[in-house]
Amino acid sequence: MNALETLAREFLQTAFRLFPWPTEPGLRPIGQPDPSSPVLLTGNFDLTVRRLVHALEGVDAWLLVAPSGGINVWCASSGGHLTTHQVVTALKTSGVAEKVKHRQVILPQLAATGVLALDVFRRSRWKVRFGPVDMLDIPAYLETREKTDAMRRVRFTLGERMQMALMWAAPTMVVLCGLALFFAPTWAAPLAALIALMSLGVFTLYDRLGSARRRIVLVASVSLAFAVALLAGAGPPALVASVVAPAFLTGLLTYDYSGSTPIEGGSHFEERAWNIHFDEARCEGIYRCWEVCPEACFERDEANRKVVLAHDDRCIRCGACVVQCPKDALFFQAQDGARIEPDVIRKFKLNLLGARRVDAG
């Protein structure tokens, strides 16, 4: 594949990452691995695999690609497509056991919502370690096998924000601009520009605008679009469209903005109002929650061999800590005292509507 084809593939898979892009599962050598080289596992979302191979340049390792439905690791783990079963099956059928003399596999930290490390060990005798959130940190992590605080916590960088903006803008343009070309061709280019600008604006600024953020986006986008249309001498139909289109796009882009980001919990899923609770009496300082929490909600209390839920306000309710705690010291609880037990979080994953209905097996 030449550079132009690679670039085109990168663009398409970023722009339309709402859809599955599977690659072939299996074991891949990175560099010149030997029996002592680390084993890394990821899902079979083609974009992730190619970026991971690039990030591991200069590293000798075994990369095990497990079937995840062609979906990225976090979505696949949260939705029941990358679970303990897929990981155990990959470890047993890939032939990796014959390639290495150790039995330790490093998973992406964001797989912790769906893959129960203790069950992987029980069923395969492979010990699971959860690596950094960002694949770019993997080479540094492999040198020490220790994660810094920065490696444990998700970031939402400008580059990542631009990718999310493209992910929403591209399919929206295909649908809306396609309709415009059919009914009112002269509106297609302005509409495409509006979609691009609003997508960039929302994913760059929205979480920084405070509690009135949706109203701010609505007023600003409608005002700007109407002013531009008026100055361009648009007729009544176009002026009406300059109000309706940005209002519609505001609703579309902000409806579940939080669910499209790694820094907020989904705003429409069933457990959005539930809070994480910690039973300190059950805690034995195993620190799995500290290792996998993508928002660094936990701190280690080495003196008492406990964890401290020090930043529960950061919690995005991903459930990773609940899934991994072997002592069931963590659970979700509503204001009325109702609880979601750890076994429910482990077994049932979220469907596309944010309901915990998917049986992970």
> By helix and strand content, what is the structural category?
alpha/beta
Using the coordinates shown, work out and report the CATH topology of the largest domain: Rossmann fold
What top-tier CATH class of the largest domain fits best? Alpha Beta
Question: Which of globular, elongated, flat, extended, rod-shaped describes the shape?
Answer: globular
Percent helix: 40-55%
Number of helices: 14
- The span between the termini is 38 Å
Give the strand order, joined by hyphens, for the main sheet: 1-3-2-4-5
Low-confidence stretches: none
Strand content: 5-15%
- What is the string of helix and strand elements? HEEHEHHEHEHHHHHHEHEEHEEHEE
Rg over alpha carbons: 23 Å
How does CATH name the architecture of the largest domain?
Answer: 3-Layer(aba) Sandwich
Domain module count: 3
Give the averaged pLDDT, no decimals. 92
* Number of E-state strands: 12
- Main beta-sheet annotation: 5 strands, mixed
Written overview of the protein:
The protein has 361 residues and is α/β, with parallel strands linked by helices. It folds into three domains: 3-152, Rossmann fold (3-Layer(aba) Sandwich); 158-260, no CATH class; 275-359, Alpha-Beta Plaits. The chain has helices spanning 3-15, 46-55, 73-78, 84-93, 117-124, 138-144, 149-152, 158-183, 188-205, 213-231, 236-254, 288-292, 320-324, 342-347, and strands spanning 26-30, 39-43, 61-66, 104-107, 127-130, 275-278, 298-301, 306-309, 330-333, 339-340, 348-350, 356-359. The strands form four sheets. Strands 1-3-2-4-5 form a five-stranded mixed β-sheet, with helices on both faces. The chain has a three-stranded antiparallel β-sheet with strand order 6-9-10. A two-stranded antiparallel sheet has the order 7-8. The mean pLDDT is 92.
